[in-house]
Design brief:
heterodimer; A: mainly alpha; B: 3-stranded antiparallel beta sheet; elongated
Chain lengths: 359, 158
Protein backbone atom coordinates (compact mmCIF):
# COMPACT_ATOMS: atom_id res chain seq x y z
CA UNK A 1 0.00 0.00 0.00
CA UNK A 2 1.21 3.45 -0.84
CA UNK A 3 1.36 5.52 2.33
CA UNK A 4 1.68 8.82 0.52
CA UNK A 5 -1.88 8.39 -0.65
CA UNK A 6 -3.17 8.35 2.90
CA UNK A 7 -4.38 11.91 3.21
CA UNK A 8 -5.78 12.80 6.59
CA UNK A 9 -5.41 16.53 6.70
CA UNK A 10 -8.44 17.76 8.59
CA UNK A 11 -6.98 20.49 10.75
CA UNK A 12 -7.45 18.49 13.94
CA UNK A 13 -5.98 15.34 12.44
CA UNK A 14 -3.03 17.34 11.14
CA UNK A 15 -2.02 18.39 14.64
CA UNK A 16 -2.51 14.83 15.87
CA UNK A 17 -0.45 13.36 13.04
CA UNK A 18 2.31 15.93 13.56
CA UNK A 19 2.39 15.03 17.23
CA UNK A 20 2.52 11.29 16.50
CA UNK A 21 5.33 11.78 13.97
CA UNK A 22 7.26 13.85 16.52
CA UNK A 23 7.30 11.12 19.17
CA UNK A 24 7.81 8.02 17.00
CA UNK A 25 9.99 6.74 14.17
CA UNK A 26 8.37 7.23 10.78
CA UNK A 27 7.22 3.66 10.05
CA UNK A 28 5.73 3.17 13.51
CA UNK A 29 4.04 6.55 13.27
CA UNK A 30 2.37 5.78 9.94
CA UNK A 31 1.09 2.47 11.31
CA UNK A 32 -0.17 4.21 14.47
CA UNK A 33 -1.99 6.76 12.36
CA UNK A 34 -3.60 4.01 10.32
CA UNK A 35 -4.86 2.40 13.53
CA UNK A 36 -6.13 5.74 14.86
CA UNK A 37 -8.02 6.43 11.63
CA UNK A 38 -9.44 2.91 11.59
CA UNK A 39 -10.71 3.23 15.16
CA UNK A 40 -12.15 6.66 14.46
CA UNK A 41 -13.99 5.39 11.36
CA UNK A 42 -15.24 2.32 13.23
CA UNK A 43 -16.68 4.42 16.06
CA UNK A 44 -18.09 7.05 13.72
CA UNK A 45 -19.90 4.63 11.45
CA UNK A 46 -21.03 2.30 14.20
CA UNK A 47 -22.80 5.29 15.74
CA UNK A 48 -24.00 6.45 12.31
CA UNK A 49 -25.39 2.95 11.68
CA UNK A 50 -27.21 2.99 15.01
CA UNK A 51 -28.80 6.32 14.19
CA UNK A 52 -29.80 5.05 10.75
CA UNK A 53 -31.65 2.24 12.54
CA UNK A 54 -33.42 4.86 14.64
CA UNK A 55 -34.21 6.90 11.52
CA UNK A 56 -35.61 3.82 9.83
CA UNK A 57 -37.87 3.09 12.81
CA UNK A 58 -39.06 6.69 13.01
CA UNK A 59 -39.69 6.96 9.27
CA UNK A 60 -41.48 3.61 9.26
CA UNK A 61 -43.67 4.84 12.11
CA UNK A 62 -44.54 8.04 10.28
CA UNK A 63 -45.40 6.15 7.11
CA UNK A 64 -47.80 4.01 9.14
CA UNK A 65 -49.31 6.93 11.07
CA UNK A 66 -47.62 5.86 14.28
CA UNK A 67 -45.27 7.78 16.57
CA UNK A 68 -42.23 5.49 16.78
CA UNK A 69 -39.70 5.12 19.58
CA UNK A 70 -40.11 8.04 21.97
CA UNK A 71 -39.36 6.71 25.44
CA UNK A 72 -35.58 6.28 25.77
CA UNK A 73 -34.01 9.71 25.89
CA UNK A 74 -35.52 12.86 24.34
CA UNK A 75 -37.63 11.88 21.29
CA UNK A 76 -36.27 8.35 21.66
CA UNK A 77 -32.77 9.38 20.57
CA UNK A 78 -31.08 6.84 22.83
CA UNK A 79 -33.32 3.92 21.84
CA UNK A 80 -30.89 2.20 19.47
CA UNK A 81 -27.99 2.78 21.89
CA UNK A 82 -29.97 0.89 24.50
CA UNK A 83 -30.74 -1.84 21.95
CA UNK A 84 -27.05 -2.15 21.10
CA UNK A 85 -26.14 -2.41 24.79
CA UNK A 86 -28.73 -5.15 25.17
CA UNK A 87 -27.34 -7.05 22.18
CA UNK A 88 -23.77 -6.77 23.49
CA UNK A 89 -24.80 -8.22 26.83
CA UNK A 90 -26.74 -11.13 25.33
CA UNK A 91 -25.50 -14.69 25.26
CA UNK A 92 -24.20 -15.93 21.89
CA UNK A 93 -26.26 -19.05 21.33
CA UNK A 94 -25.90 -21.42 18.41
CA UNK A 95 -27.08 -24.85 17.32
CA UNK A 96 -24.98 -28.01 17.67
CA UNK A 97 -24.49 -28.99 14.04
CA UNK A 98 -23.09 -25.72 12.77
CA UNK A 99 -19.75 -25.35 11.03
CA UNK A 100 -18.18 -23.45 13.91
CA UNK A 101 -15.36 -21.71 12.05
CA UNK A 102 -17.43 -20.43 9.12
CA UNK A 103 -20.35 -19.60 11.39
CA UNK A 104 -18.18 -17.33 13.49
CA UNK A 105 -16.37 -15.89 10.48
CA UNK A 106 -19.43 -14.90 8.46
CA UNK A 107 -20.58 -11.77 10.35
CA UNK A 108 -17.06 -10.31 10.18
CA UNK A 109 -17.00 -10.73 6.40
CA UNK A 110 -20.19 -8.73 6.13
CA UNK A 111 -19.28 -5.96 8.54
CA UNK A 112 -15.63 -5.62 7.43
CA UNK A 113 -16.57 -5.30 3.76
CA UNK A 114 -19.11 -2.65 4.72
CA UNK A 115 -16.54 -0.68 6.72
CA UNK A 116 -13.84 -1.06 4.06
CA UNK A 117 -16.02 0.68 1.49
CA UNK A 118 -16.42 3.67 3.81
CA UNK A 119 -12.69 4.45 3.56
CA UNK A 120 -12.74 5.74 -0.01
CA UNK A 121 -15.64 8.18 0.21
CA UNK A 122 -14.80 11.87 0.01
CA UNK A 123 -17.03 13.22 2.77
CA UNK A 124 -15.49 16.63 2.24
CA UNK A 125 -12.40 17.97 0.53
CA UNK A 126 -10.19 16.88 3.42
CA UNK A 127 -12.26 14.20 5.09
CA UNK A 128 -11.24 11.16 3.06
CA UNK A 129 -9.18 8.33 4.48
CA UNK A 130 -7.97 6.66 1.31
CA UNK A 131 -8.09 8.46 -2.04
CA UNK A 132 -7.13 5.78 -4.57
CA UNK A 133 -7.28 6.40 -8.31
CA UNK A 134 -9.55 3.37 -8.89
CA UNK A 135 -12.07 4.39 -6.21
CA UNK A 136 -15.23 3.43 -8.10
CA UNK A 137 -13.76 0.08 -9.12
CA UNK A 138 -12.74 -0.56 -5.52
CA UNK A 139 -16.28 0.17 -4.33
CA UNK A 140 -17.85 -2.25 -6.82
CA UNK A 141 -15.34 -4.93 -5.86
CA UNK A 142 -15.78 -4.46 -2.10
CA UNK A 143 -19.55 -4.30 -2.19
CA UNK A 144 -19.70 -7.83 -3.66
CA UNK A 145 -17.53 -9.31 -0.91
CA UNK A 146 -20.33 -8.88 1.62
CA UNK A 147 -22.40 -11.52 -0.14
CA UNK A 148 -19.71 -14.11 0.62
CA UNK A 149 -20.36 -13.48 4.31
CA UNK A 150 -24.07 -13.96 3.74
CA UNK A 151 -23.50 -17.21 1.82
CA UNK A 152 -21.17 -18.46 4.55
CA UNK A 153 -23.70 -17.60 7.23
CA UNK A 154 -26.48 -19.44 5.43
CA UNK A 155 -24.36 -22.48 4.64
CA UNK A 156 -22.70 -22.89 8.03
CA UNK A 157 -25.93 -22.47 10.02
CA UNK A 158 -27.08 -25.90 8.81
CA UNK A 159 -30.64 -24.64 8.63
CA UNK A 160 -32.94 -24.81 5.65
CA UNK A 161 -34.26 -21.28 6.05
CA UNK A 162 -30.76 -19.86 6.34
CA UNK A 163 -29.58 -21.82 3.31
CA UNK A 164 -32.51 -20.75 1.13
CA UNK A 165 -32.04 -17.15 2.21
CA UNK A 166 -28.32 -17.22 1.49
CA UNK A 167 -28.80 -18.78 -1.94
CA UNK A 168 -31.39 -16.16 -2.81
CA UNK A 169 -28.90 -13.52 -1.71
CA UNK A 170 -26.25 -14.96 -4.01
CA UNK A 171 -28.68 -15.02 -6.90
CA UNK A 172 -29.81 -11.50 -6.24
CA UNK A 173 -26.35 -10.01 -5.83
CA UNK A 174 -24.98 -11.71 -8.96
CA UNK A 175 -27.91 -10.37 -10.97
CA UNK A 176 -28.06 -6.83 -9.66
CA UNK A 177 -24.30 -6.33 -9.42
CA UNK A 178 -24.43 -6.02 -13.22
CA UNK A 179 -26.90 -3.17 -13.14
CA UNK A 180 -25.02 -1.36 -10.39
CA UNK A 181 -21.77 -1.70 -12.27
CA UNK A 182 -23.18 -0.68 -15.63
CA UNK A 183 -25.04 2.34 -14.29
CA UNK A 184 -21.86 3.47 -12.52
CA UNK A 185 -19.98 2.90 -15.79
CA UNK A 186 -22.43 5.18 -17.55
CA UNK A 187 -21.42 7.98 -15.22
CA UNK A 188 -17.72 7.14 -15.49
CA UNK A 189 -18.06 7.70 -19.25
CA UNK A 190 -19.05 11.23 -18.43
CA UNK A 191 -16.32 11.99 -15.89
CA UNK A 192 -13.49 10.06 -17.51
CA UNK A 193 -11.97 9.18 -14.14
CA UNK A 194 -12.45 6.51 -11.48
CA UNK A 195 -11.04 8.58 -8.62
CA UNK A 196 -13.89 9.69 -6.38
CA UNK A 197 -12.36 13.01 -5.37
CA UNK A 198 -11.82 13.92 -9.03
CA UNK A 199 -15.36 12.89 -9.90
CA UNK A 200 -16.52 15.42 -7.30
CA UNK A 201 -14.13 18.08 -8.64
CA UNK A 202 -15.49 17.53 -12.17
CA UNK A 203 -18.88 18.66 -10.88
CA UNK A 204 -17.64 21.93 -9.39
CA UNK A 205 -17.69 23.82 -12.68
CA UNK A 206 -20.17 21.98 -14.87
CA UNK A 207 -22.92 21.34 -12.35
CA UNK A 208 -23.94 18.05 -10.84
CA UNK A 209 -23.53 15.03 -13.09
CA UNK A 210 -27.25 14.29 -13.09
CA UNK A 211 -27.68 17.69 -14.79
CA UNK A 212 -24.61 17.42 -17.00
CA UNK A 213 -25.72 14.13 -18.47
CA UNK A 214 -29.47 14.97 -18.42
CA UNK A 215 -31.57 12.09 -19.88
CA UNK A 216 -29.07 9.20 -19.73
CA UNK A 217 -27.97 10.38 -16.26
CA UNK A 218 -31.51 10.34 -14.93
CA UNK A 219 -32.08 6.87 -16.35
CA UNK A 220 -28.78 5.71 -14.86
CA UNK A 221 -29.78 7.17 -11.49
CA UNK A 222 -33.12 5.38 -11.50
CA UNK A 223 -31.51 2.07 -12.45
CA UNK A 224 -28.80 2.59 -9.84
CA UNK A 225 -31.31 3.23 -7.05
CA UNK A 226 -33.37 0.14 -7.94
CA UNK A 227 -30.32 -2.08 -8.26
CA UNK A 228 -28.74 -0.55 -5.15
CA UNK A 229 -31.84 -1.26 -3.11
CA UNK A 230 -31.66 -4.84 -4.37
CA UNK A 231 -28.00 -5.11 -3.47
CA UNK A 232 -28.56 -4.07 0.11
CA UNK A 233 -31.25 -6.77 0.36
CA UNK A 234 -33.86 -4.30 1.48
CA UNK A 235 -37.57 -4.40 0.78
CA UNK A 236 -39.03 -4.77 -1.86
CA UNK A 237 -36.06 -7.03 -2.64
CA UNK A 238 -35.79 -8.59 0.83
CA UNK A 239 -36.29 -12.17 -0.33
CA UNK A 240 -33.11 -12.92 1.56
CA UNK A 241 -34.60 -12.35 4.97
CA UNK A 242 -38.26 -12.61 4.03
CA UNK A 243 -39.58 -12.94 7.55
CA UNK A 244 -42.93 -14.36 6.48
CA UNK A 245 -41.30 -17.25 4.60
CA UNK A 246 -37.85 -17.83 6.03
CA UNK A 247 -37.83 -16.79 9.67
CA UNK A 248 -34.99 -14.30 9.43
CA UNK A 249 -33.31 -15.80 6.36
CA UNK A 250 -29.56 -16.16 6.48
CA UNK A 251 -29.21 -14.86 10.04
CA UNK A 252 -31.91 -17.09 11.55
CA UNK A 253 -29.40 -18.88 13.79
CA UNK A 254 -27.49 -15.80 14.92
CA UNK A 255 -28.02 -13.98 18.18
CA UNK A 256 -26.49 -11.22 20.25
CA UNK A 257 -23.59 -9.26 18.83
CA UNK A 258 -23.19 -11.43 15.71
CA UNK A 259 -26.79 -10.66 14.78
CA UNK A 260 -26.07 -7.01 15.47
CA UNK A 261 -23.20 -7.11 12.96
CA UNK A 262 -25.52 -8.29 10.20
CA UNK A 263 -28.11 -5.73 11.20
CA UNK A 264 -25.59 -2.88 11.31
CA UNK A 265 -24.02 -3.97 8.01
CA UNK A 266 -27.40 -3.69 6.29
CA UNK A 267 -27.72 -0.07 7.33
CA UNK A 268 -24.10 0.79 6.54
CA UNK A 269 -24.59 -0.78 3.10
CA UNK A 270 -27.58 1.47 2.63
CA UNK A 271 -25.34 4.40 3.56
CA UNK A 272 -22.73 3.20 1.05
CA UNK A 273 -25.20 2.89 -1.83
CA UNK A 274 -26.55 6.36 -1.06
CA UNK A 275 -23.02 7.76 -0.81
CA UNK A 276 -22.06 6.32 -4.21
CA UNK A 277 -25.18 7.89 -5.67
CA UNK A 278 -24.37 11.24 -4.04
CA UNK A 279 -20.82 11.25 -5.35
CA UNK A 280 -21.75 10.10 -8.85
CA UNK A 281 -24.96 12.04 -9.42
CA UNK A 282 -25.36 14.82 -6.86
CA UNK A 283 -21.96 16.41 -6.58
CA UNK A 284 -20.68 14.83 -3.36
CA UNK A 285 -19.89 17.51 -0.78
CA UNK A 286 -20.41 20.40 -3.22
CA UNK A 287 -23.19 22.76 -2.24
CA UNK A 288 -26.09 23.26 -4.67
CA UNK A 289 -25.27 26.21 -7.01
CA UNK A 290 -22.18 26.87 -4.90
CA UNK A 291 -24.15 28.78 -2.26
CA UNK A 292 -21.72 28.03 0.57
CA UNK A 293 -18.58 27.90 -1.54
CA UNK A 294 -17.23 31.20 -0.21
CA UNK A 295 -18.15 30.63 3.42
CA UNK A 296 -14.89 29.31 4.84
CA UNK A 297 -16.20 27.96 8.13
CA UNK A 298 -19.13 26.08 6.62
CA UNK A 299 -18.55 22.31 7.03
CA UNK A 300 -18.83 20.83 3.53
CA UNK A 301 -19.40 17.43 5.07
CA UNK A 302 -22.84 18.70 6.07
CA UNK A 303 -23.94 18.88 2.43
CA UNK A 304 -22.76 15.33 1.91
CA UNK A 305 -24.72 14.12 4.93
CA UNK A 306 -27.87 16.00 3.88
CA UNK A 307 -27.79 14.48 0.39
CA UNK A 308 -27.07 10.99 1.72
CA UNK A 309 -29.92 11.20 4.23
CA UNK A 310 -32.22 12.35 1.44
CA UNK A 311 -31.38 9.29 -0.66
CA UNK A 312 -31.63 6.99 2.36
CA UNK A 313 -35.08 8.43 2.96
CA UNK A 314 -35.92 7.54 -0.66
CA UNK A 315 -34.87 3.94 0.00
CA UNK A 316 -36.96 3.85 3.17
CA UNK A 317 -39.85 5.21 1.16
CA UNK A 318 -39.43 2.28 -1.25
CA UNK A 319 -39.34 -0.12 1.65
CA UNK A 320 -42.55 1.04 3.27
CA UNK A 321 -44.47 1.33 0.01
CA UNK A 322 -43.79 -1.68 -2.19
CA UNK A 323 -44.64 -5.32 -1.54
CA UNK A 324 -41.94 -7.99 -1.78
CA UNK A 325 -41.13 -9.41 -5.22
CA UNK A 326 -41.23 -13.10 -6.06
CA UNK A 327 -37.97 -14.69 -7.21
CA UNK A 328 -39.12 -14.89 -10.84
CA UNK A 329 -40.26 -11.25 -10.76
CA UNK A 330 -36.89 -10.30 -9.31
CA UNK A 331 -35.05 -11.97 -12.17
CA UNK A 332 -37.45 -10.67 -14.80
CA UNK A 333 -36.92 -7.13 -13.58
CA UNK A 334 -33.14 -7.45 -13.80
CA UNK A 335 -32.57 -9.50 -16.94
CA UNK A 336 -35.47 -8.36 -19.09
CA UNK A 337 -35.76 -4.73 -18.07
CA UNK A 338 -32.86 -3.19 -16.15
CA UNK A 339 -30.00 -4.83 -18.05
CA UNK A 340 -31.17 -4.12 -21.64
CA UNK A 341 -32.17 -0.59 -20.64
CA UNK A 342 -28.79 -0.11 -19.02
CA UNK A 343 -26.91 -1.24 -22.15
CA UNK A 344 -29.03 1.05 -24.30
CA UNK A 345 -28.38 3.82 -21.81
CA UNK A 346 -24.61 3.41 -22.04
CA UNK A 347 -24.79 3.73 -25.83
CA UNK A 348 -27.02 6.77 -25.44
CA UNK A 349 -24.55 8.33 -23.01
CA UNK A 350 -21.67 7.61 -25.38
CA UNK A 351 -23.57 9.32 -28.22
CA UNK A 352 -24.36 12.29 -25.99
CA UNK A 353 -20.71 12.72 -25.09
CA UNK A 354 -19.53 12.10 -28.66
CA UNK A 355 -21.81 14.80 -30.06
CA UNK A 356 -21.07 17.11 -27.12
CA UNK A 357 -24.69 17.33 -26.05
CA UNK A 358 -23.79 17.50 -22.37
CA UNK A 359 -24.92 20.57 -20.49
CA UNK B 1 -43.93 -1.86 -28.43
CA UNK B 2 -45.67 -3.19 -25.35
CA UNK B 3 -42.19 -3.50 -23.79
CA UNK B 4 -41.78 0.26 -23.38
CA UNK B 5 -45.41 0.86 -22.48
CA UNK B 6 -45.00 -1.81 -19.78
CA UNK B 7 -42.05 0.10 -18.38
CA UNK B 8 -44.02 3.34 -18.49
CA UNK B 9 -47.00 1.72 -16.79
CA UNK B 10 -44.76 0.14 -14.18
CA UNK B 11 -43.06 3.40 -13.25
CA UNK B 12 -46.41 5.20 -13.21
CA UNK B 13 -48.03 2.71 -10.84
CA UNK B 14 -44.97 2.70 -8.57
CA UNK B 15 -45.11 6.49 -8.37
CA UNK B 16 -48.83 6.34 -7.57
CA UNK B 17 -48.08 4.03 -4.65
CA UNK B 18 -45.28 6.26 -3.45
CA UNK B 19 -47.50 9.33 -3.56
CA UNK B 20 -50.03 7.56 -1.34
CA UNK B 21 -47.48 6.61 1.29
CA UNK B 22 -45.78 9.99 0.94
CA UNK B 23 -49.08 11.63 1.77
CA UNK B 24 -49.33 9.48 4.87
CA UNK B 25 -45.79 10.46 5.83
CA UNK B 26 -46.58 14.16 5.61
CA UNK B 27 -49.82 13.81 7.55
CA UNK B 28 -48.26 11.56 10.20
CA UNK B 29 -48.03 14.34 12.80
CA UNK B 30 -51.71 15.20 12.73
CA UNK B 31 -53.07 11.79 11.86
CA UNK B 32 -51.10 9.62 14.29
CA UNK B 33 -53.49 7.04 15.66
CA UNK B 34 -51.21 6.02 18.53
CA UNK B 35 -52.60 6.80 21.98
CA UNK B 36 -49.86 7.74 24.43
CA UNK B 37 -51.86 6.02 27.11
CA UNK B 38 -50.47 6.68 30.58
CA UNK B 39 -49.61 10.25 29.57
CA UNK B 40 -53.02 11.17 28.21
CA UNK B 41 -55.14 9.50 30.87
CA UNK B 42 -57.13 12.70 31.48
CA UNK B 43 -58.04 13.34 27.86
CA UNK B 44 -58.29 9.77 26.58
CA UNK B 45 -61.76 9.09 25.19
CA UNK B 46 -62.76 5.54 24.40
CA UNK B 47 -65.00 4.66 21.48
CA UNK B 48 -68.79 4.60 21.73
CA UNK B 49 -68.99 0.85 21.24
CA UNK B 50 -66.15 0.03 23.63
CA UNK B 51 -67.02 -2.74 26.12
CA UNK B 52 -65.43 -1.91 29.43
CA UNK B 53 -67.82 -3.05 32.12
CA UNK B 54 -71.57 -3.25 32.70
CA UNK B 55 -73.10 -0.37 34.66
CA UNK B 56 -76.61 0.67 35.58
CA UNK B 57 -77.26 4.35 34.97
CA UNK B 58 -79.26 6.26 37.60
CA UNK B 59 -80.96 9.58 37.11
CA UNK B 60 -80.72 12.60 39.43
CA UNK B 61 -83.40 11.29 41.78
CA UNK B 62 -81.48 8.02 42.27
CA UNK B 63 -83.93 6.14 40.05
CA UNK B 64 -83.00 3.37 37.63
CA UNK B 65 -84.81 1.43 34.90
CA UNK B 66 -84.40 -2.10 36.25
CA UNK B 67 -87.68 -3.88 36.85
CA UNK B 68 -86.06 -7.05 38.16
CA UNK B 69 -87.27 -9.18 35.26
CA UNK B 70 -84.07 -11.27 35.42
CA UNK B 71 -83.68 -11.44 31.63
CA UNK B 72 -80.04 -10.49 32.00
CA UNK B 73 -79.42 -13.14 34.62
CA UNK B 74 -80.92 -15.81 32.32
CA UNK B 75 -79.08 -14.49 29.26
CA UNK B 76 -75.67 -14.47 30.93
CA UNK B 77 -73.79 -17.59 29.75
CA UNK B 78 -71.44 -17.83 32.73
CA UNK B 79 -73.45 -16.57 35.66
CA UNK B 80 -71.84 -13.19 36.10
CA UNK B 81 -75.13 -11.58 37.07
CA UNK B 82 -77.16 -12.43 40.13
CA UNK B 83 -80.31 -10.53 41.06
CA UNK B 84 -81.61 -10.58 44.60
CA UNK B 85 -85.20 -9.48 44.42
CA UNK B 86 -88.23 -9.07 46.61
CA UNK B 87 -91.92 -8.34 46.35
CA UNK B 88 -93.30 -5.15 47.86
CA UNK B 89 -96.57 -3.25 47.73
CA UNK B 90 -96.57 -0.51 45.15
CA UNK B 91 -97.83 2.64 46.94
CA UNK B 92 -99.58 4.06 43.85
CA UNK B 93 -101.53 0.97 42.73
CA UNK B 94 -101.64 -0.95 45.99
CA UNK B 95 -100.61 -4.18 44.22
CA UNK B 96 -97.70 -6.45 45.12
CA UNK B 97 -94.87 -5.93 42.66
CA UNK B 98 -91.40 -7.39 41.97
CA UNK B 99 -88.48 -5.09 42.73
CA UNK B 100 -84.75 -5.57 42.89
CA UNK B 101 -82.86 -5.55 46.13
CA UNK B 102 -79.35 -6.05 44.74
CA UNK B 103 -78.20 -6.35 41.13
CA UNK B 104 -74.90 -8.19 41.64
CA UNK B 105 -72.39 -8.20 38.79
CA UNK B 106 -69.20 -10.30 38.93
CA UNK B 107 -66.76 -8.45 36.68
CA UNK B 108 -64.18 -11.17 37.32
CA UNK B 109 -66.36 -13.71 35.50
CA UNK B 110 -67.66 -11.44 32.75
CA UNK B 111 -66.47 -12.16 29.18
CA UNK B 112 -67.89 -8.89 27.81
CA UNK B 113 -70.18 -10.80 25.44
CA UNK B 114 -72.96 -8.22 25.83
CA UNK B 115 -75.84 -10.71 25.84
CA UNK B 116 -77.27 -9.21 29.07
CA UNK B 117 -77.44 -5.76 27.51
CA UNK B 118 -79.14 -7.12 24.42
CA UNK B 119 -81.59 -9.05 26.58
CA UNK B 120 -82.60 -6.12 28.80
CA UNK B 121 -86.11 -4.99 27.78
CA UNK B 122 -85.85 -1.59 29.47
CA UNK B 123 -82.18 -0.71 28.69
CA UNK B 124 -81.47 -0.58 32.41
CA UNK B 125 -77.85 -1.76 31.99
CA UNK B 126 -75.35 -0.34 29.50
CA UNK B 127 -71.64 -0.55 28.62
CA UNK B 128 -69.27 1.87 30.32
CA UNK B 129 -65.97 2.89 28.67
CA UNK B 130 -63.96 2.27 31.83
CA UNK B 131 -61.16 -0.22 31.13
CA UNK B 132 -58.78 0.17 34.06
CA UNK B 133 -60.27 -2.74 35.93
CA UNK B 134 -57.22 -4.18 37.69
CA UNK B 135 -57.48 -4.30 41.48
CA UNK B 136 -55.45 -5.76 44.34
CA UNK B 137 -58.34 -7.79 45.82
CA UNK B 138 -60.60 -9.82 43.60
CA UNK B 139 -63.57 -9.43 45.93
CA UNK B 140 -63.79 -5.81 44.83
CA UNK B 141 -64.63 -7.06 41.36
CA UNK B 142 -68.04 -8.17 42.61
CA UNK B 143 -70.11 -5.05 42.18
CA UNK B 144 -73.65 -4.08 43.20
CA UNK B 145 -74.92 -2.11 40.25
CA UNK B 146 -77.95 -0.44 41.81
CA UNK B 147 -77.03 2.31 44.19
CA UNK B 148 -78.20 2.02 47.83
CA UNK B 149 -81.66 3.49 48.37
CA UNK B 150 -82.43 3.63 44.65
CA UNK B 151 -85.72 2.51 43.19
CA UNK B 152 -87.20 1.80 39.80
CA UNK B 153 -88.57 4.70 37.80
CA UNK B 154 -92.38 4.77 37.74
CA UNK B 155 -94.14 3.48 34.67
CA UNK B 156 -91.19 1.64 33.17
CA UNK B 157 -93.06 -1.64 32.94
CA UNK B 158 -95.87 -0.25 30.84
Amino acid sequence: MNFTQMIIPLNITKTISDWIYSIMPETAASYTIMVVIAVAYLLLFAVAGLYLVLLERKVAAWFQLRIGPNRVGPWGLLQTMADALKLVSKELTSTIKIDKFLYNLAPYFVIVSAFMAMAVFPFSKQFQAFDINIGVFFLIAISSIGVIGILLAGWSSNNKYALIGAMRSGLQTISYELSVGLSILTMVLLTGTLQLSEIVEAQRTGGWLILQGHIPSVIAFMIFMVAGTAETNRAPFDLVEAESELGAGFHTEYSGMKFAYFFLAEFINMFIISSIAVVLFFGGWLSPFGITENIAWFPEVLWFIIKVVGLIFLMMWFRWTFPRLRVDQLLTLEWKYLLPLNLMNIVLMAIVIWLNWTI
Amino acid sequence: MSYFSDIYKGIKTLLTGMSVTGGYFIRARKGAITQQYPDNRETLKMFDRFRGEVVMPHNADNRHYCTGCQSCEIACPNGSIEIIWDRAVDPTTGKKKKKIDKHIYHLSMCTMCGLCIEACPTDAIVWAPNFENSVYDRSTLTKILNQPGSSVLDGIED
